[in-house]
Design a protein that fits this description.
Layout (H helix, E strand, L loop, with lengths): L10 H17 L4 E7 L2 H4 L5 H10 L5 E7 L9 H10 L5 E9 L33 H13 L3 E6 L2 H12 L3 H7 L2 E4 L10 H4 L3 E4 L8 H6 L5 H5 L5 H6 L4 E3 L10 H10 L26 H8 L1 H6 L17 E4 L16 E6 L2 E4 L3
Parallel strand pairs: 1-2, 2-3, 3-4, 4-5, 5-6, 6-7
Antiparallel strand pairs: 8-9, 9-10
C-alpha cells in the first residue's frame, strides 16, 4: 500500500473551492447561508475559510450573503473571545460577516456520541454502557455563552442528543431575556428533544434549526438508529410539526456537504416525511413509509423556514426573505408552483433561475 500526503490547500485552492460551491448553491436557488464551521482548522483539521470569504467579498466575487459562525475551540477557553471580536471587526462590511459563534455540544447518534439522558440500547433492546457525552460540560458552556452573548454574538449550538438539547436550552436560560431576544440564538439538528423541553424553545426565544432531509425512514435510520434507541425515544425525533404548532420559530438548513444542499429535497421531506424519488432511494421499502407523519408541516411553513426563517436567524428580515418593494432582490424561480402541485411532487421541482441582490447568478432571463 502506498501512502500519499495531500498538501494543505493554497489560497488559490480555497478561493476556487468557494466559487465552485457558490455556483452549486446558486443552482439550487440559494443566495444566502450561514457557514457553521469557520475557523475550525486546529480542532477538526479543516481549512480556515475566514480570509477566503473576506477576500472574495472585497473583490466582489462573493455573490451569496454569508454569515460566518466562528468555531468555538473547546480546548482554548475564554481567551479566544478577543480573537473572535477581532475577526468580527475585520468582517463587518460587504457580503461576509462573522457575527455568530458555533458551539459543538455532542456528536451523532450513529456512532453513539450524541449526548443522551439515558443509555443507548444494545441489539437485544437492553441498556448498554454508552450514552454519549457532552463535548462542553454545562458549567464551562455557561461560562462561555455569557460573555459571548454580552458581546453581541449570536450562539449557534450543535445539539443532536436530548441531553445536548437540554444543555443548550439551559445555557440560554442563564442569559438575560433581552440578550436572548436580540441574539436570535439557534439550536441546530435537534434529532432528539425530550417532552420536557418542547415548550422551552418558544419560552427562551430559541430558534429551532432543523435539517429536515434527515426526518425520514431510510437505511441509516432503520439500521443505525432505531434499534439502539427504543420506541419512546423514536417518537422524540425531528418534532418539527409539534414545534411549529406550538409557536416556536423554525429555520431550515442543510448541513451540506454532509447531505444534500437542495432546499426542495429538504422541503419534500418536511412536508411528506419521505424521501423524494429524485434522491434515488425512495423505492426502497423502508423509505416508502412516512416517518412520524404527524410531524409533517405545510408547504407554506416549509417555504417560510427556508426564506423568512433563515433571514430572521441572520438578522436580515428587513432586507430580504420576502418579496416586497425595497427589499433585496433575492429570488429563486421554479419550474413548478409548489402551492399548485401535489405535495408528493415537491421533490420533482427544479430551479430555473436564481437572482442574488438583483443580479442573475444562475439560469437565463
Amino acid at each position: 500500500m502506498r501512502l500519499v500526503q495531500v498538501p494543505a490547500p493554497s489560497a488559490a485552492d480555497l478561493r476556487a473551492g468557494l466559487l465552485a460551491a457558490q455556483a452549486h448553491l446558486h443552482s439550487l436557488g440559494i443566495t444566502r447561508f450561514q457557514d457553521a464551521c469557520v475557523g475550525a482548522a486546529a480542532e477538526l483539521g479543516m481549512p480556515d475559510a475566514f480570509d477566503t470569504y473576506r477576500q472574495a467579498a472585497a473583490d466582489g466575487v462573493l455573490t451569496c450573503q454569508v454569515t460566518g459562525a466562528l468555531w468555538w475551540d473547546r480546548q482554548r477557553g475564554l481567551g479566544q473571545i478577543d480573537e473572535m471580536l477581532a475577526r468580527r471587526e475585520r468582517a463587518h462590511r460587504g457580503r461576509f460577516r462573522a457575527t455568530t459563534v458555533k458551539l459543538m455540544l455532542d456528536g451523532v447518534c450513529e456512532t453513539f456520541t450524541a449526548a443522551m439522558s439515558a443509555p443507548y440500547l444494545d441489539r437485544h433492546g437492553h441498556p448498554a454502557d454508552r450514552q454519549g457525552r457532552l463535548f462542553i460540560d454545562p458549567e464551562t458552556l455557561g461560562e462561555a455563552v455569557r460573555p459571548l452573548a454580552a458581546e453581541g454574538f449570536q450562539l449557534h449550538f450543535h445539539a443532536i442528543g436530548d441531553r445536548a438539547v437540554s444543555t443548550a436550552l439551559e445555557a440560554l436560560a442563564g442569559l438575560p431575556a433581552e440578550q436572548r431576544r436580540a441574539g436570535r440564538h439557534h439550536i441546530a439538528h435537534l434529532q432528539f428533544i425530550a417532552p420536557r423541553d418542547m415548550g422551552r424553545f418558544r419560552a427562551l426565544d430559541a430558534v429551532a434549526n432543523f435539517q429536515p432531509l434527515w426526518a425520514c425512514n431510510e437505511p441509516q435510520m432503520e439500521e443505525m438508529t432505531l434499534p439502539f434507541i427504543g420506541p419512546e425515544r423514536t417518537a422524540w425525533q425531528y418534532q418539527i410539526g409539534s414545534l411549529v404548532r406550538g409557536g416556536t420559530r423554525i429555520a431550515f438548513g442543510s448541513d451540506w456537504p454532509i447531505s444534500s444542499a437542495d432546499p426542495l429535497q429538504e422541503m419534500h421531506v418536511a412536508v411528506n416525511r419521505v424521501l423524494s424519488e429524485r434522491l434515488g432511494r425512495a423505492g426502497e421499502p423502508e423509505c416508502a413509509n412516512p416517518f412520524m407523519p404527524a410531524q409533517a408541516i405545510t408547504v407554506d411553513d416549509a417555504i417560510g423556514a427556508f426564506t423568512s426563517g433563515v433571514d430572521w436567524v441572520n438578522h436580515e428580515e428587513h432586507a430580504a426573505g420576502t418579496l416586497l418593494p425595497g427589499l433585496r432582490a433575492d429570488v429563486a424561480v421554479l419550474d413548478q408552483d409548489l402551492y399548485a402541485i401535489p405535495p408528493g411532487a415537491i421533490g420533482d421541482t427544479a430551479v430555473v433561475l436564481t437572482v442574488a441582490s438583483g443580479h442573475v447568478v444562475f439560469g437565463d432571463l
